[in-house]
Amino acid sequence: MKTVEEVRNDIPLTKKCIYADNGATTPVPVPVINAMNEYFLEYCANVERGTYSIALKASKKWNEARRNVSKILLNCGDEEFIFTKNLTEAANMVAYALEHSLLNDGKEQNPIVKWGEGDRIVSTIMEHHSNLMMWLRLAKHLNLDFSLVKPANDCRLLPELFDIVDEKTKFVAFQHVSNAVGTVHDVKKIIKRIKEKNPDCLVFVDGSQGPGHMPVNVKGLGCDFYGFSGHKGPLGPQGTGGLYVKKELIEKMEPMLLGGGIISDVLENGYSLADTYSKRFDAGTPNIPGLIGLGKAAEYVNEIGLGNIEKREKKLGRILLEELSRMKGIEFYGSDDDRGTITFNIKGWRSHDVSLALDEKNILTRAGHHCCIPLMRFLGIHEKYGGNVRISFHYYNTEGEVKKIIEAIGGLL
Predict the structure, then answer these.
(1) Which residues form the catalytic set?
(2) In the predicted model, is pLDDT for residue 205 greater than 90?
(3) Matching CATH topology for 4-20+305-410 and 33-302?
């Protein structure tokens, strides 16, 4: 297990400021940077192509990264895991596959979903735009009904709220953790409720705020798809991420991109895709150094202990919320449960002005609508405050930093 101080020593930025915007992007530890530099300096070659020594090493490291990320962060096999550049790409890959049948060996296969008149897609009003817009577009393209679930008063998605799912509901997409208010939902119970209503309904989970912040077991959750970004909880580089797809579904998925590296054969009138399903989605030269870096980042958070990260984030969030709750003139959003993200507004202040004032004290926070405009309007804070102020922690944040944040916010009242 790595100590907080050891992790802080690996992240030089922690010596320069109080970084509390981990819900958006996390600083990358030096060992992860070193792993990427090693690729550039020692075996900078394309993967799955050449047979010379450094090309073989690159492919080996690439495949090791896929195994590490899938196992450590999602607890799934690498044959069910697709490398992506972020959650946004993961969701768009699924949306594309739901609209297009697989073409392989010169023949069009049966579609993942046979859409019919009156079929419906369900999502929630809490979603990040990257887990909403593609489902809206899919519904428009296929002339499907589209419904949004609204949360309980504490911004929690409850299983019973998904009782709108019926035999005509073919697909549901919702978040694991809210990036806008920090609420952690009981994903397993929600999916169980959905599947009870319609066992054939497919479920996509946006895990952007999950892996790296907490242990995640996609098999245990019961989801059909689970996507995430590598530059948030896992402490990986930007431009990396992943998508879990159940084996019986990944076999039927049509790749969103075609090109080199994903085929077993190409003829003048057709092509055959790679036999390894997860590698059908690696068209073109991928972000090799970044994804090798993500593999190292998975190892890094595993050394800390994903349970330890979750426990510490909750502890810091609890301290912050308890102290700020004693102050007058602050509005809070989300549940009162232990969580590592706290969102609030100060009455009479625009959210961005609060964040700018904290920046003057070298405290870095995020303010605005957090790419969740429908939720901000639902809460009545989009026009009033311009969104909210978000403080999101990771393992390397300290109790001393929390104290300084509390003092700085108190000074604004």
Answers:
(1) 371
(2) yes
(3) no
Closest CA to 385 of 355, 357, 358, 345: 345
* Cα–Cα distance, 354 to 410 (Å, whole number): 11
> pTM for the complete prediction?
0.97
Sole residue written with tokens 């997860």: 278
3-state DSSP of the chain: CCCHHHHHHHCHHHHCCEECECCCCCCCCHHHHHHHHHHHHHCCCCCCCCCCHHHHHHHHHHHHHHHHHHHHHHCCCHHHEEEECCHHHHHHHHHHHHHCCCEECCEECCCCCCCCCCCEEEEECCCCHHHCHHHHHHHHHHCCEEEEECCCCCCCCCHHHHCCCCCCEEEEEEECECCCCCCECCHHHHHHHHHHHCCCCEEEEECCCCECCECCCHHHHCCCEEEEECCCCCCCCCCCEEEEECHHHHCCCCCCCCCCCCEEEEECCEEEECCCHHHHHCCCCCCHHHHHHHHHHHHHHHHHCHHHHHHHHHHHHHHHHHHHCCCCCEEEECCCCCCCEEEEEECCCCHHHHHHHHHCCCEECEEECCCCHHHHHHHCCHHHHCCEEEEECCCCCCHHHHHHHHHHHHCCC
Closest CA to 187 of 203, 171, 208: 203
For 4-20+305-410, which CATH superfamily applies? Aspartate Aminotransferase, domain 1 (3.90.1150.10)
Cα(2)–Cα(300) distance, rounded to whole angstroms? 9
d(CA 52, CA 129): 44
Give per-residue pLDDT as tens, 313-352. 999 999 999 999 999 999 999 988 889 999 999 999 999 9
Q: Tell me the per-residue pLDDT of 352-403, one tens digit each, with 9 for 90 and over.
A: 999 999 999 999 999 999 999 999 999 999 999 999 999 999 999 999 999 9
The domain ranges of the chain are 4-20+305-410, 33-302
Q: Which fold has domain 33-302?
A: Aspartate Aminotransferase; domain 2 (3.40.640)
Handedness of CA 347, 409, 19, 307 (dihedral sign): negative
C-alpha Rg value of the chain to the nearest Å: 22
